[in-house]
Amino acid sequence: MKTFGTALALAAAAAAVQAGPVLDAVKARGEVVCGVNTAAPGFSAVDSQGNWSGLDVDTCRAVAAAVLGDAKKVKVVPLSSPQRFTALQSGEIDMLSRNTTWTMTRDASLGAVFAAINYYDGQGFMVPKKLKVTSARQLNGATVCLQAGTSSVQALADYFAGNGMKYKPVMFDTTEATQNAFLSGRCQVYTTDMSDLAGARTRARNPQDFVILPETIS
User: Residue 13 has what pLDDT?
Assistant: First the structure.
């Protein structure tokens, strides 16, 4: 088993290197515009009434409480992985609070500040139990569902190359689309953060039909 010891740092990112203009805009508007994942159970999820809940949403509310004195003064903006950095850089959102890996490349190139870590995670794999797979080393030749524009794409490529295996990637723009494709049988494997795998498993009609493999690859 090949395991990378560095966990993912899921961070809330401020929209500019200097918080002054952003903070001034938030105070003038009277509302924090906060980007979150489109659907990540336990982190950002919306109910039938349009009410958002989860750790990342609570982070948005905590910032609103600290800056504006009212945790309710938040506008939640759901963003896919390809959308998140563009929204941050363009000023569409004031802050990003979603599963976003803190990397040196992003630190140097985004023009944004990773302000705090709110969760440690690692990338793993989930498969249907009927495949009788017990290790990621058994996934040679598998079709793999994953989300475009994420660090999972490169980590997956590195893991398979390092273990002399091949795979067929099937990529989607949003978390929901990726999860739905896997749960409907379009792929044999789903790879993403372990927390997202656990959340996706709860969405299955029969969660016991799916297994999260033991390997953590990032």
Answer: 52
Q: Are 49 and 132 in contact (CB under 8 A)?
A: no
Residue 38, token pair as written in the block: 């489109």
Q: Domains for the chain: give ranges and CATH numbers.
A: 8-121 (3.40.190.10), 123-212 (3.40.190.10)
pTM of the model: 0.78
Integer Cα distance of 186 and 143 in angstroms: 8
Cβ-in-10-Å burial (0-12, 13-18, 19+) of 35 comes to buried
Whether the Cβ atoms of residue 88 and residue 112 lie closer than 8 Å to each other:
yes
pLDDT of residue 6: 27
The one-letter code for the residue type at 9 is A
Q: Do 215 and 124 contact (CB within 8 A), yes or no?
A: yes
Contact by Cβ (8 Å): 152, 167: no
Residue 44 and residue 60 in contact, taking contact as beta carbons nearer than 8 Å: no
Checking DSSP bridges between strand 123-128 and strand 74-79, what pairing results, if any? Answer: unpaired
pLDDT along the chain (218 residues), means of 10: 31 52 92 93 93 95 96 96 92 93 87 86 97 98 95 96 98 93 97 94 95 96
CB 89 within 8 A of CB 111: yes
pLDDT at 107: 85
H helical segments located in the chain: 19-29, 55-68, 81-90, 104-109, 151-162, 175-183, 194-203
